[in-house]
Each structure stands twice: as C-alpha cells, then as structure tokens.
Amino acid sequence: MAPGVKDSLRAVTPSQSNQVSNEGDVIKVFIRVRPPTEGPILNNGEHPGMCLSVLTSNTLRLHSKPEPKIFTFDHVADMDATQESVFSSVAKGIVESCMNGYNGTIFAYGQTGSGKTFTMMGPSESDNFTHNLRGVIPRSFEYLFFLIDREKEKAGAGKTFLCKCSFIEIYNEQIFDLLDSASTGLLLREHIKKGVCVVGAVEQVVTSAAEAYQVLSGGWRNRRVAATSMNRESSRSHAVFTITVESMEKNNDVVNIRSSQLNLVDLAGSERQKDTHTEGLRLKEAGNINRSLSCLGQVITALVDVGNGKQRHVCYRDSKLTFLLRDSLGGNAKTAIIANVHPGSKCFGETLSTLNFAQRAKLIKNKAVVNEDMQGNV
Amino acid sequence: MATPAAWAAACEKFRASLSLSQVQSQKDPENDPYKSKYRARELLQEVKALLGPAADEDEDEEAGGGDGGGPGAEEGPAAERAGPGARAGAGAGAEPSARAVRLAAVELQLGLNHIDTEELAAGEEHLQNCLRLVCRSRLEPAAVSLHLQAQNNLGILWSERDEIETAQTYLESAEALYNQYMKEIGNPPLDPNEHFLPEEEKLTEQERSRRFEKAYTHTLYYLAQVYQHLEMIEKAAQYCHTTLKRQLEYSGYHPVEWAINAATLSQYYINKQCFMESRHCLSAASVIFTQAEQTPSTEDTETEQEQQDLRQRRAEIARCWIKYCLNLLQNAQASLEDNIGELDLDKQSELKAQRKREEDEKENGRKKVVLFGTSDVCDAILAIEEKVACVPPLDFGEAREVFLVGQNYVCEAKEYFQVDGYITDHIEIVQDHSSLFKVLAFFEEDYERRCKMHKRRIAMLEPLTVDLNPQYYLLITRQLQFELAHTYYEMMDLKVAIANRLEELDSHTVKKINSLAQSAIKYYELFLDSLRDPNKVFPEQLSEDVLRPALVAKFHIARLYGKLITCDGRKELDNMQASLEYYMFLVDYCERYPEAVRAVETELELSREMAGLLPAKMERLRAKLSPFT
Q1: What is the pTM of this model?
Q2: B377-384: Cβ within 8 A, 24+ apart
Q3: CA–CA separation, A145 vs A141, rounded Å?
Q4: Which of A199, A272, A315, A323 to mutate to test the interface with B (most CBs of B within 10 A)?
Q5: Quick one: closest CA in B to A233, which residue?
Q6: Does B319 or A171 have the greater pLDDT score?
C-alpha cells in the first residue's frame, strides 16, 4: 500500500466532535447485493437461503451466528436496484467533480461471481452499450461527454476539451496494455507533472462516448483473449480504465488549463487466492498463518506498522495496483468503492470478509495529511 | 506384519505419493487442481492397508485418553504430555514399534493431503491419529519429528478456522517438545519420510539435523504470526528475530530477502527506541546483503531486472539506516531540550554523568540481545556496528558523527531513488536529509552557523517545489510548503536573536530579517491556498487533518507581520492591521467551532491576548502619525 495510506489511516481517530465531515474527504463505500442465480426469492423479508438482508438504504443485516451483525454504509443497493440507480448514486458525483478538476476513482470489489463486472461493464454478451443493462463505465462515458458538450455550449469557442483513454491490466504484478496486445511488462514511474504513470501505455484520443465504447470493448476483448490463450483466469487480474480530461479555456489571452483523471477499476476477485500476498489490496489481511517462510517479511512489516508516529521506513510496500492508484487511496481525489456481495448462504464467509473490507475502507481519509512537527516554539 | 514384498510395495507407493503431491501437483490443470493430490491420497490409503490395522498392543489405552476430540479436550492433555508424563515415557524408554511409527508417518501425510485439498475436518483427524500413534514415544528419535510436524500443522489448521488460541496451544506445545528433546536426548532424529526409505538411502546425521531444525524454525515462525494476531507484538517481534537468527545459522535463507527482513525488523526496534537491537539488525542486513552482491546469480547473464532489483534493495536498506540515524538524533534532542526547545545545559551534564556510570554495565546489556551469525559473519557485523553509536549523542561532536553517517546513507539512497521516476521516494529522502540538518542545528550553539544549516535545508527543499504538480502530490507539496515556511521562520528568529545582541541595527540585518519573514509568509500562504477548492474558495470549516497546521500557519503569519521592521509609520500600521486580522481569524474560528480549541490551545491564548492589545497599540500609533498627515 502507498505510504500515505497507512499514515492517513492512522490519522483517523474517533471523531470527538459531532461535526459533519467535509464532502469528499472520506472514501464513499457502497454495497451492492446481486440477486442469486437460482432458487426462489421469498417476499416476506426473510430469505431462508440468504445470509443477509437489506434493512434500509444504508444498513444491512448479516445473519451471522450467534448474533446477527448490522453494517452501515453510505448506500446499500438491494438486489432489485437498477444499473441506472447504481450509476446515479455512485458515479454521477465523481464524474461531475472530474469536470471540476478533481481526480476520481471508482473501484468494484468483491469475490468472483459477486457481480463486479456486471456492475462496471454490464452483461458480457453484447459489445454495444446501448441497452439499459450497461454498467457504470459506459454510463460514465455518456455522462462525461454530456457534461463536456454542455460546457462547450455554455463557453462557446473559448473552451476546448481533450479526452484520452488508456486501458491496462495488472496480472501477477506485471502490467499489460490492453490497447496494445503486443506489449509486455510495462513499467510504472512517477512523473513530476503527471503523477504515477505507465511508461509506454497507449493513449487513445476520443471525442465521443461512442468512441470511448470502442476503446473499452476492444480492450475488454483483449482481456478475455488473454484469459484463455495464456491459461489464466481473468478474475485474477485487475483492469484499470483511465480517462484523462483536459480542458483549455482562453480568457483574453490568459490560457487556463485544467486536467483530471478518472480511473474505473475492476479488481481481481477478493476470495482467497493461491498467492494472497501479490494479489489484491493489502488492506485485506489474511487472518491465517502463512506457511511460507519467505513471507516472514510480511509479519515483520505488520509489526512495524503498529509504530507510534515515529519515523520509519518499511521496505515492503506498494503492490503495482496500490502504487498506480496512490492518489485514489488517500491522495487528492474523490473515490468510491462498490463492494459487491452475493447474498447466498454458501457465500457467507466471503461476504463477511467483503463487508469487513468495506467497513475498513470507510476509515481511509481521502485527503493529504500534513506532517506538522513543531515542538514548543510558539 | 507385512511380508517383505508387501513392505517393498508400501515403500514404493509412499514415495510415489510424495512425488505426486510435491512435484506433480504443481502442474495440475486449473479445472482439476487437486488431481495429483487425490491420486497421492489413494496411494497413502493403500500403504496404510498394507501396513495392517492400527489397533496395536498397548496403543488402545492411550487412545482412550487422547481421543477426547475437539480442541478443548486437546488443550489439557497436550500441556500435560509435555510435563511429567512425558518424562516418565522417556525414562521408561518407550521404544516405538516400527509399525506405529510408519503408520504415524502415513497419517501425517494423509493429514497434510486433506488440508491441502480443503478438507480440514478429515485432515485434523489424521493429524490427531498421528499424534496418538507416537504419543508415548514422542521423545524418541524415531518419533519426535512426526510429533513436532503434526503439531505444527494442527496449529496452521486451527488458525485457518480463526481459532488462534487453539493454534497457539499446539504450537507452544511443539516448541516445548523441541526444547525437551534437545535437552534430554539431543541427537539428530529421523525425518518423517525416512521410515519408508531403504537402508542405503537413509539420511546422514547432518541432513536429519538440518530437517529437524528447519521444522522447528517453522514452529517459531508460526508462533510469531500467532502472537502477531493476538497482538502480543513484543513476543511476535522476538520470534521473528529468532526465526531470522535460525535461518542464518542453518543457512536456510535467501540473502536479499533475509537482509530486507532484518532491515525491516530494525524499524520495529526504532519504534521501541531499542537502538542497540536496531543497529544490530541493520548491520547484519548490510553484511548479508553484500553476500548477495558478491555471489553471481545462477545464470551466466544476470538480467537487467535483477540488477535493478538489487540496486533498489540496497537503497531500501540505506533508507532504514537513515531513519536509524534520524531517530537516534531526535531521541537525543527530546531528552536534552528545555521547554522552549533549546539545549538544556543542566540536562546535558546530568546525562553525561549518567552515561559514565552506565558504561561499566554496558557489557551486561549487550548479552541480552540475540546476536546474529557465527564468528566470521559476527565480526563483519561488529565492524559495521562500530561505525555508528547506538546511544543518543549528547553534544555537537557526537551528534555530528551520527549525522555524517546518516548523510552518507542519504547519498546512497538517492543514487537509486532519483527524481526522475521516483518522485515520492526521492522527496522523502530529501526530507529526511533536511530533518537530519534540523536536529544537528539543535546541537549547534553558534547562531550564525545554525542559520547556515537551515539555509542548506532550504537549498535542498525549495527546488523540489517548483515543478511538483499538487494535483498528484498534494500531501508532499503541503509538507514541503509547511517545512519551508517553518525553516524561514526559524531563520528569522535566529537573525532577530543575533540582532538583539548588537548595539544598533544595521540596514543589512533589517533587510535580511524582513526578507526571511516575507519568505516564511509566502510559504505559509501557499500552504493555506492549497486548502482552497478548485474555485479558489477557502473552506468554511477545516477538516480535522489540516485543522492544526492551518491554524498554526495563520498564527505564525500573524506573528511574522508583527516582526517586520519598518520605519514608515503607515507601513507599520498596515502590518499591525494584517497581524490583527490573522490573530482574529484564530479567535473567531475557535468561537465558531469550539472543538478546534483543543488543537491550538496555546496559540489561541496568545492570539486572544494580541487581539486585545493590538487595537490600543494601533490607536497610539495612529495618534502619533496624525500630526504628520
């Protein structure tokens, strides 16, 4: 994880004031419950084969034994929620602030089969994104270009926009460009002006939602092809679609350039994997004993993390994903996490861990903390 | 008993099963991941059948007690067995029957197999069977390894069920078994899989010992994790340390990995202010890392990636060293400063006397630390340790020594973490460098020279802010702005102190003071501007994480306007007005949001006082000025 994230996590002390936190400080966490694939749904509120029930629009109850557990989130979408309603409660605000110059990120998290791809993309069969089951990513395109067109109309010829897309995949701590299937092993570097960037990733200019769809579906196809030809599961890779929006405004010879990034991320499945320490976010910690002695470092790192604000350096840190999304996890960005869960009682264990993850994610303060060290020199 | 032919078949099957589950299973297809494991399991069952039924002579009576099932029942007996009962067993020389041992070895493999294929309950049963079969003879060289490994694996199993306490019982019991065996018996025991090897393939004593010690190292490593999960952090660290030590002793380590682990552990000791242990870890890390650099990789041509990784790891270890030096210095500063942050001479002489007293006892303290390595490695570690102190420095000379070591590591770390490509890391290193200077300045008594040190800090930090894009590096940008502002502020204070000693203020000094104050104001304002939203509006309410820095910035700006020197009455009045406005911001803000008071108590008190005094002062000045206007 990025160093800033842990620091920010530490900065979160139980708030003693009852003030409402500033809009956008905290990562917004949404839960989406997918409908089960089979079995009857009873309408009496209690589902016999279900491990959870939605109580209100921001709470749900997990039928754990002996005591049921209540979780509270920014929003809980029940299984009848439409794609449109998920988009407007999660993504709309983030796309809007992207127009205002903020960076924005939307993650989908959850075990394989909990509906991440459905939420982000829509049903897999069709490549046209016109039907109303299309997911957050295509809807974000539409909304973004709608806003751009509106801005242009308002500002006239004085204001121009430039949108560039890139689409990469992270598998086994290696980065692949989905827009250029010939590429291998791309490097992550930090650029003084552009932040973290993937060296050599293709950036495709798009001028409309339709063009953005093409980039998306082309890349998505590469992802699926890769999944079969190299004999690897797609759910073990993270896919990151990035749109950079640049606006240029001319006001009497003064040129005002604004640039922001929107990252749309389909994370790898969160369930236990053969090799948990390279996959997934480090936020999710395995409660079990690691058998491999070569993971000793992780244990030691956990000990160092307990540090009390003393200066220290921990040699194991970023995974590629957390490095790439540094800003989204505790930087200068608006971030939302959609935690997808499957309500079936068979999925109880994974659902619980997803909910626990989501609960922790809420604690991440999405703003930079200033190290203010001054002792007694008022 | 089985016939020789049956026995040969059993051995063959057992070895085939091992190869299936350890080698073949790596290549199983994704859609049938346990294919080889299931096949191995079948073979093991066949071996078991060939060995004949389990019920054996006097095995049954023991089984009655041990078979209580469940973890609760196990806790009692497990602990008891390690106690007096065990000694009786060893004393009586309970030589295990070969068959019992062989069966136990099969049960252990079956247990592992079921656990690998996610059938925990069945796996547990087999492991318990294994324990039961060798229970009475667990201190025998033929059985001790089986017992130890079964307990290790039961520990893992229960941790997977999130029953950490139960896991802890098994692992601690394994630890006790090892210690008892080494104390009472001590010769290298048989390896669990050796029972199915023909005589001529039996392992050497050395190999037996190596495997047994490795299993025990695993026990300690699992215990480290158990203690970490139980939040017994100190114990966990101790077990990590011992694990590292044993890896080194039994050459079961990868040098780079080991070095990085040791360097990371040093950071734990820094947090605990155990500088001696921290230094030992770091020195060992440096020594072992050098081994890695010297041994060429197995392939003839090392890939560029590997070279790159090595360079990065070296830089990482250097960064751990920087933190060590920095913390040692800061720790010293904290123990030496008076209530306004200056060097307290009384404390200094007191601590120096104390250190003299302690020097004689130092040798004793030294022995408590678990030391890494054997003679030659030990000497190399010692040589590195000697280059830097592990007791906090007490005067400028000593502080400078530590500073110089830290500065060397800064250079080393920067070689890899260059601005181009590693912005965040690079800036963090420069910030540490600046902090090293800052704490060194604390020990410097000459104000002019102290000022020069701060000037060095500004020279290294200021260029970084020029191109940095705050949209991506907001946190760092703010930190730099704040640190720069504060450094200018300190320099101004120093110049004022120097000026106070002079008879008369010369124009050069006045200019210097004013320009430092202006620079400080500039960076505080930049920091405050970074809090504005994209429409340049300052937030009505400050969020918790920036509350104190923002209010402190306002307060310092208020003071800085008060310090600006001018002989133009109008200008002085303007400065006072600005100062008053900033003080008032603090007072008003805390009135609106009383919960902010906690963060800035002292500053608020002073601001209230100034807000009361300034208007009268300004009135007087105005009156003085009016005749001229």
Answers
A1: 0.84
A2: B377/B248, B377/B284, B377/B287, B377/B288, B380/B287, B381/B280, B381/B283, B381/B284, B381/B287, B382/B283, B384/B282, B384/B283, B384/B286, B384/B287
A3: 6
A4: A315
A5: B30
A6: B319
